[in-house]
Fold each of these.
Amino acid sequence: MHRILVYPNQKHHSRPHLQAWEKDYISRGRLWGGAVVDLPAVPEGSLVLELGCGDGKTLVALPGGCRVVALDVSSKALRLARSVRADAAFIQADAGCLPLRDSSFDAVFAFHVASHLLADARRALAAEAARVLKPGGRLFFRDFSDRDMRAGGGVEVEPATFRRGSGIFTHYFTEDEAVALFCGLRLASVGTHCWKMRIKGEDHLRAEVQAAFLKS
Ligand SMILES: C[S@@+](CC[C@H](N)C(=O)[O-])C[C@H]1O[C@@H](n2cnc3c(N)ncnc32)[C@H](O)[C@@H]1O
């Protein structure tokens, strides 16, 4: 089982919204249920980076033939992720300041992580993801849409970004915004995946922007 590499020189310990993740994983344990659907295919042998891997829901679905680096700010999340995918390398660091070489990855997955950053930090994540991708490498993005049932819940801290009681905030994307965020890469596809969630006998809309980009 791999060690978790920690990059303590990074500033996340001083930022309460990042500490909120650690508290949430410590108090509630595994946070993300269900299975990832329609995971984009990556060729066998690819070197893959997952940003904000959480407790490993996407990580565990990545094909066994890939070499995987999983990164998160929360040490507790990384320990949970390591228990479901021991063959990955684990890094505790901020996705906006990656301790990784330029042009080194075949694919980067950013599923439900950019949404938990403020606008400046989202741009830093996008720039870093583009930097570490090899030419010809692909970035896969998923985050909730501004049509999702949860959009608008909590205190609005920036346009379309809402903080809940735990201190964690979530930004809700439009497709155009997702495309603009990764403007350093070439758009391959974008769309919104919708499904219904039944709560207390009523249907509610879940909506997720999904996009794929290519580095030229
Ligand atoms: C909603 S979870 C996503 C989990 C995972 N990607 C999945 O698909 O199941 C968001 C994760 O992003 C992490 N995170 C938040 N801000 C981050 C940052 N600046 N850098 C790296 N990870 C971050 C949190 O600790 C949390 O584990």
Note: The longest strand covers residues 186-199.
Amino acid sequence: MDIIRGIEARRSVRKFQDKVIPKDIIERILELSTKAPSGKNRQPWKFVILQNNKKDELVNLMRKIASAYKKQNTNIGSYELTINSINEASVLILVFNPYSKIEEDYNYYRLITDTQSIGAAIQTIALVAPNFGLGTLWICDIFYCHNEIMTWLECEDELVAAVAIGYPNEYPHSRPRKLLHEVTEWIY
Ligand SMILES: Cc1cc2nc3c(=O)[nH]c(=O)nc-3n(C[C@H](O)[C@H](O)[C@H](O)COP(=O)(O)O)c2cc1C
């Protein structure tokens, strides 16, 4: 698939078939994602891959937290829909920045540089997955249960995002985009 067609065809997929992705395909996708550029070539990404029981445990944890939020009448936006997508997906990849907690002189500029690099890696996952017949959902709703995930995983790294991957069970239309003139300014 050429890259422009791939970019135009990519969609966030929220419904997945009950079908397992072979490990070598996940590994190939992650290998490709690490070809993304990164500030100072720091490659500030770490991927934790959840499948089967471990993913189910996370879904249960997320559901428990959703009920707690609902009891307090807290608006949780798309959180529950996202949990359903994670539940259906074959794999959930949690993406961490391991540097932010270990470098003593870590600062705001490094954080935004590293976060851009991680974004490039995640976008690469989203763009290459369809080549393997797969769909992806980039997820930040995990921040509704950030602390609980860190405790559950006994993890010190900085959680940046999650990506659900699976064989699509829906082929969504493209979502609207702002017009180019709304998001550009030419300065001569
Ligand atoms: C940083 C980021 C976080 C996102 N978090 C979520 C999420 O938690 N749940 C969800 O359903 N979609 C999430 N999305 C998907 C967006 O809703 C989606 O990209 C947007 O609506 C445009 O649709 P498209 O990806 O199909 O073009 C996220 C996307 C990005 C880039």
Note: The first strand starts at residue 46 and ends at 50.
